[in-house]
Protein 1
Amino acid sequence: MTYEEHIQSELLRWQKKILRPPGLLEKGSKAIQSKLNELYPKKFFDTLTVTIKGLVRGVLFGLEYMPKGKPIKNADLMERDQKALELLKNYKRVAAAEGAGTGAGGIILGIADFPALIAIKMKFLFELAHIYGYSTESYKERLYLLFVFQLAFSSQEKRPGVFYKLVHWDETVKDYPELKAMELFDWEQFQVEYRDAIDLRKMLQMLPGIGAVVGAVANYGLLEDLGHVGMNCYRLRILQEKGLIQMD
């Protein structure tokens, strides 16, 4: 079995996981999340709203997250995966350090951690795109990263819809012309799904005494989740372009 054939098998298993219906535990978690939302200070929601809207605008139209290096060309999938794993390892360390520092400061610094962690995640994704050979100078590629981010932090109920958009990317991107992107991209749903995905882990970070430890572990885990989804999205895209895998 070649490396690409091995990855094909992994991706088919991943697809089944993405497309499965939400279980009882996942359905029940919505009620828990509603209760958790009542515990957050209003400032948290204000910060998150401003951060997410700014993130979407910055990714689509700004240069803030753009890597300095050029996309890697003429590398096979195994080489790209190895570089991606090394990148993820480095970014998990950065995220854990950020979470430990702000977690030790309780609620105020815990709130401050949200925009910092989102920036770390987006910088990771931009660099990941270049590792897999896609230039983030292209609006199409920056928009793609927003959907990768959304897939990583969506509920099981919403994931199949986001996954479908990524699988059929050449068609999806036609629905988001650059000049109307901010109007058409549903950043409010993006925000709600992200908030609910990270609720419990980040809420515990704001508790005195344990915040530093929880913050480090939470941020490390959130980068791990994003890295897994990001790598699989680019693996899938490369194999699709080669005609080696097909997903409906």
Protein 2
Amino acid sequence: MPATLKPPQPLSRGWPSFWRSTWYNWKMVFDNPLGEVAGSLGDLGTLLPLITAMAAAGTIDPTATFIFSGLWNIVSGSLFGIPIVVQPMKAIASISIARPMTLHETMGAGISVAVIVYILTFTGFLAEFGERIPIPLIKGIQMGAGLSLVLNAGATLMKLSWSAHSADNYIVVVLAWILLCFTSRHHQFPYALLIFGLGMFLVLSTGVEVPKAGWNLPTWTPPAWADVMNGFWFAGLGQLPLTILNSVVAVTYLSADLLPERPSPSIEALGTSVATMNLIGCWFGAMPVCHGSGGLSGQYRFGARSGAAPVMLGIAKVLVGLFFGSSVSTLLVNFPKSFLVVLVFAAGIELAKVGEDLNSTARDLWEIQVENRAIIHPTLGLRLHRERLVRVDITDREKKERFVIMLATAGGVIAARNDAVGLFAGTVCYLGYILQETLEDTSFTLLIFSAWKKTTAWLFRHVFGIKKRQPAPVVTSPPVRSRESSRTPLLRERRSFSPRAIARSLSPRRSRSPRISVPPTPNRAPSPPPRSLSPRRSPSPRRSWSPRRSLSPRPSADVTPIQSPVGSSSATGILRRPRSRGRSRSPRPEDQV
């Protein structure tokens, strides 16, 4: 096995250790301080536009959103020990801005999704679904989400211009992109921190009013039952598959691929975390949130390698929410869009890159191999076997089919802007390949054909009352090989089954085919061979004795040649006395004269 191919780590089950994750976070703070600080700002390209747009539309409470989302950042980073982000539920956010929805309807949508995710998690359906979904479908969902971020960045980019009167122009975008490309291999370079600081400096230099510090606390705003139902039908129903696939299943597999040295969060833990965050925060007007794979890839791209990055971002959010509240929205609205475009574009590319190892080191291309040999471990003692992961080789045809399934899933996600549509498209493509492979098996095809034949016969007989017509018996003669058939078997046109023809074929003198011998019947004497019925020499019937015949003169014993009749085939002939087939006897004395 090549040295570049590393087996993936198994997915975790249950809840991670809080103390081990906290110790690892502190260790990474001292080992990679700039990377963790810069990585914490990696998902601002998605977070800031949605928060400012929803706050301007009046569908969320900014103070409660900053406080509760920051609190969930701290808990998630401390519990999981990896850069798990807390992002807005994109489907609910986009629908609430476009419709627009009221604050209570938005909260009702988040609560309804949280209740359903709780039920699916505690019944075990969510974990079972996450383990059985094929890897090409998961890679397709991740690639589709990444390319969707790229398209969103492109849509924002089209609104800019070449004007240099503000920071929102193509020149700033090009300079920021050049800086990103030249520092792409240096993950410890604080690119996101530099971009955020430069953006805030440009905002303050435009003369925007600085928010005043004060004490702000969230208020209790419970939605009514009608608001919950309206929010679910308008926005929650479209958000549910996105939360299950992108916020739970995709994050589990993405964390295992990006950070193989760390235990990945289990599906049960992520499902419980998403449900708990919304069941608590939505009663105070906080924005419906989830764990997104795009935010995880964004923080990883800009240097985050542990849970210290979301903890730092969470502390900053809580402080902003408590001391500034909704007044900080004026700064966020004027943040340069040219910087956000580059951040979102880089996060989308990082997320779409996970489809690269689909046919090389994907999780389903490894199997456990057991070596039955004695191994003496210094701590564990004697072990009789050892397990290791071995890569499974696949054919070029299987590689192409897996790639097509991933593209079909990603295409559905991008085209419909919905993960459920992409999952459906990829599943149909996956089942189509399985069906074709099954039909190529001859035994299975014959089994299906036999079952179809028996089913149709039963239907015609018992339902329609139509019975199958029995064919008439065919009388066949015994196979007889004639002289002509033995000589030229390919020119046989007619066969005569008359007794004379059969006797001629059985004659040892005229037939060149081997004689057909019939085995004797038990307790019965064998029958004599058939007499020859040659046309040249036919047997004469036995005649009774008469005096006229006995008194006729006998010819001499000498053979007298005579002339052959005209037209005969030979010149001479031989005249012989025909022999009598009766018993020979000497003449009596009274017969002589």
Protein 3
Amino acid sequence: MTTPDPTRAQQLIRACRMVAEARPEQIARLLKDIAAQGGSERAL
């Protein structure tokens, strides 16, 4: 089992905190940004 690099883990933790503290409209915007970056095959 490999451990992820710390920077990736910190990014995930930061993203989780953002979602936990965000208002619904902020979460919707964040999901749209992620979908746009992820490519058309992952679009919501």
